[in-house]
Amino acid sequence: MADRPTTPAELPDNDAQWRTAGDRIQTLLDSCATGGAVAYERAQQLVREVVGLYGAGLERIMLIAGDPGLTERLATDDLVASLLLVHGLHPHDVRRRVSDALDRVRPYLGSHGGDVDLLEVTDDTVRLAFTGSCKSCPSSAVTLELAVEDAVRAAAPEISAIEVVAAQPAAPSGLIPAESLLARMHPPGSAWHPVPELTQLEPGEVAGFVVSDTTLLVCRVGDQTLAYRDHCPVCDDSLAGAQLHETLLDCPRCGTRFDVVRAGAGPDGAHLEPLPMLPRDGVPSVALREPLGAST
User: Fold this and answer.
1) Which is an annotated Pfam family here (predicted)?
2) pTM (2 d.p.)
3) Torsion sign over Cα 57, 58, 60, 65
4) What's the distance, CA 23 to chain centroid?
5) DSSP helix/strand/coil, 91
């Protein structure tokens, strides 16, 4: 958000390291299981004691802080906010946290010609409406939904259902549970993969990356970095060697032009397959799924 007082320059250099501490702790706990049930239980108890200790400390900090400005800084720092959520200490209600999360992903949605409106937050359900020029592009629609779902669940883990107002007027019920929609259009097992090398791209540059056996084509347009699967839908070939002309990417084999800032739109309804890309834990990350049509 534009009014957030904390800037990346103020964060410690090892900020991303601590955000992945949960995974490392779980790995260590799992390794303790090899020492037997007693050792594993003692390791779990140790973690519970440590978590309880820093939870009590966080609660004390929030009480002592008092100053609304300082409280806001703590609540809008991603790392601190995640800890506050774990202990039920976050000062913002669910609607505020969801709204802020949507604001953070709106620039990404806009780069794909889309937007999202927060319609309602009731109990443990969030209702959203997607808008924009991408609603007729199935792969782009899934891209936007996956990015929004990830942001909402990170900001409000207590949310158990995300309902999306169907962009297509022919949808029978008007409301589609995000989980069932995403399950149909991309197989289970989708995951975010960090690609720190993306920060090295210069404006106007196009580069290929292999991530989890998937070849990506990544373009840098101004301050936007956009990722697509390396496949031309017109000639059914690789885009390796493609050149970027402002926002248009030329296929080096068939010459077809695709608008990379408009979800890869090409002529006659053809389009590249965009991939969700967001900064996660301070590192550019791409969400990958199986190719369309793959068996689940």
Assistant:
1) Rieske
2) 0.52
3) positive
4) 18
5) coil
Per-residue model confidence as pLDDT tens digits over 70-98: 777 777 777 777 777 777 777 788 888 88
Task: Please check the confidence at residue 240 and state whether its pLDDT lies above 70.
Answer: yes
C-beta contacts of 75-81 below 8 A and 24+ residues apart = 76/1, 76/4, 76/5, 76/6, 76/100, 77/6, 77/11, 78/19, 79/15, 79/18, 79/19, 81/155
CA distance 103 to 85: 19
Residue 16's pLDDT band (cuts 50, 70, 90): low
Q: Where in the chain is the domain with CATH 3.30.300.130?
A: 94-186
What is the overall mean pLDDT for the chain? 74
**Cβ–Cβ contacts within 10 Å for residue 263, how many?**
27
The fold of the 94-186 domain, in CATH, is GMP Synthetase; Chain A, domain 3 (3.30.300)
May I ask the CATH class of domain 192-288? mainly beta
